[in-house]
Amino acid sequence: MRSATIVSAALPLLLAFCLPSVAQSKGPCTCQDIPDIEQRLKEIDETRAAWQQVLTQTFTNQSLKTPGQARQAFKQAMGWGSGPTNQVGGLDPNTGDVETDPAWESQHCDAVVDANKLHEQTHASDFRLGIPFAVILGAPAKALALSEINARDKEEAFLQEKLEELEQKCGHWRCKCNGQLYQGAEKCAASCPPPSMSCIAPTCYEIDPKTGKATGKVH
User: Fold this and answer.
1) pLDDT of 198-212, one tens digit each?
2) 84, β-bridge pairs
3) Which residue, 36, 107, 161, 198, is the most exposed by fewest CB within 10 angstroms?
């Protein structure tokens, strides 16, 4: 994806570029990384919507055929203009291995980096299974758009699961049996008195720290 907003696809034969292979993330995600993960999910949603626009255009605009044209249409959909984008992830054009920019990777925790790698691995799989046929049929722009959407779907599902795991550990949870506030659903469940007739399970519910109101999540 573009740094701060998107990781662009890098499919062999469609987009060839190399990134340094030695990279290391910040490490396991912590409570402090939740905003970064939420921002990443927002970026995935926004860029997927743009690629969906491009896919629609490939059916209505007969001149939109090449990957280069598709990427240009994507930039326009994002409102970026025609300038170059900063690619932070891709596939080695010779080996097909996933590569990420070390500087970008060092700024994000494991879940964000792993999700990016899953994104690129999805492109590799799409290329092996479907893109050669799409190229033969003269529809490489459609293939690229479909792969970009598919990669974001998988990246989002992976990150959403990791975010939910973190929220279980880091969120503000209140025990309705004693009224106490705890950091994390598991800590709340362990500290909250057992369910009873006067305090029916589930006994812990999440509190939005900004509003002080229940979010609707229970444990």
Assistant:
1) 899 899 999 987 788
2) none
3) 198
The crossing angle, in degrees rounded to 10, of helices 110-129 and 34-60 is 20
Kindly give the residue spans of alpha helices, DSSP state H, lying in 1-105: 34-60, 67-78, 102-105
Query: Residue 200 has what DSSP assignment?
Result: P
H-state helical runs in the chain: 34-60, 67-78, 102-105, 110-129, 131-136, 140-170, 185-191
Q: Which residue, among 159, 163, 166, has the nearest Cα to 183 in the 3D structure? A: 166
Q: Are 93 and 123 in contact (CB under 8 A)?
A: no
Rounded to whole angstroms, the Cα distance separating 34 from 162 reads 10
Residues 50-58: contacts with CB under 8 Å, at least 24 apart: 50/74, 50/77, 50/78, 51/77, 51/145, 51/148, 51/149, 51/152, 52/145, 52/149, 53/77, 54/141, 54/145, 54/148, 55/142, 55/145, 55/146, 55/149, 58/139, 58/141, 58/142, 58/145
User: What distance in Å separates the CA atoms of residue 143 and residue 79, rounded to the nearest whole number?
Assistant: 22
* pTM, 2 dp: 0.72
Residue type, 165: E
CB 205 within 8 A of CB 174: yes
For residue 137, the model assigns a pLDDT of: 56
